[in-house]
Specification:
The complex is a heterodimer. Helix content of chain A is 7%, strand content 41%. Chain A contains two helices and seven strands; from the N terminus they run βββββαββα. Helices cover 70% and strands 2% of the residues of chain B. Chain B has six helices and one strand, in the order αβααααα. Classes of the chains: A mainly beta, B mainly alpha. Strand 1 of chain A pairs parallel with strand 1 of chain B, so a sheet runs across the interface.
């Protein structure tokens, strides 16, 4: 998060908090979970990453980085954790390194973030 | 120093002010919409195309598992429409509906996209879903 509460800049670095919306990453992340993101960190296999939607500028998504795109090593294949629904590389295609904005470090304890 | 700033931010800002990262389904849950079946069917088609281009055995195995899951989801979403959304008057007005659902769910099943990697079968499935979606849209109008 930015200390002024403003929108997340495309090239921000360092640690920040973000809130999760939606259920496509269940059971790992639930709607309204708060996660600590390392902005500027690159993707790794099996890590959760934050990236910009390839077609909707400014829309940030969180998914699991699975492996490099075998057809283009400058891109990552991302998938949803929730088998029941959600978009991922099987519908969005792989994600360019330049669109990956950060990596999820940890989820804050729900006891802390749920009133 | 980032850590003190981080802790300070944690204390001073409410969760609702945090930026949001989306893990959305493309569609709201619990709402009837043939687009749910379509999205899963589109990804089944993409899987078939990707597998045709790949000779990586790990990728092909994962693709097969995911295709199985998503073909099952296509059937699930179609069945929900068939049994929960459409009512007897719809089946009277559109007598082809039962057959359409029967054929579409078969195309998503073991004899269809679940059992194979045929892109043409995935296209047939998408075409059936589109026909169901047309009828769905007409029933929404009336």
């Amino acid at each position: 998060m930015s200390s002024d509460g403003g929108p997340v800049g495309r090239r921000r670095r360092g640690l920040g908090l973000v809130r999760v919306a939606g259920v496509s990453m269940e059971p790992t992340l639930r709607a309204d979970d708060v996660v600590l993101v390392w902005w500027g960190a690159c993707a790794r296999p099996d890590a959760l990453v934050v990236f910009e939607h390839p077609e909707r500028q400014g829309l940030l998504l969180v998914k699991r980085a699975v492996h490099r795109d075998p057809e283009d090593t400058a891109r990552w294949w991302v998938e949803r954790d929730n088998v029941a629904g959600g978009s991922d590389s099987w519908t969005l295609g792989s994600i360019a390194d330049s669109d990956i904005l950060g990596r999820v470090v940890t989820r804050l304890p729900r006891a802390l973030t749920r009133g | 120093m980032r850590l003190p700033r981080f802790i300070g931010a944690m204390l001073s800002s409410t969760i609702s002010e945090l930026p949001t990262v989306h893990a959305h389904c493309d569609l709201p849950c619990g709402v009837y919409d043939p687009a749910q079946a379509r999205i899963e069917a589109e990804s089944v088609k993409k899987i078939c195309e990707k597998v045709a281009d790949s000779d990586d055995p790990d990728f092909r195995t994962r693709a097969a598992i995911i295709k199985e899951q998503r073909s099952e989801l296509v059937k699930h979403h179609l069945w929900v429409l068939w049994t929960d959304y459409f009512k007897p008057p719809h089946f009277e007005a559109y007598p082809e509906l039962h057959t359409l659902f029967n054929e579409a769910t078969k195309l998503a099943g073991a004899s269809g996209t679940k059992g194979g990697f045929d892109v043409a079968t995935a296209d047939e499935l998408l075409a059936k879903i589109d026909k169901i979606a047309e009828i769905f849209a007409e029933t929404k109008k009336s």
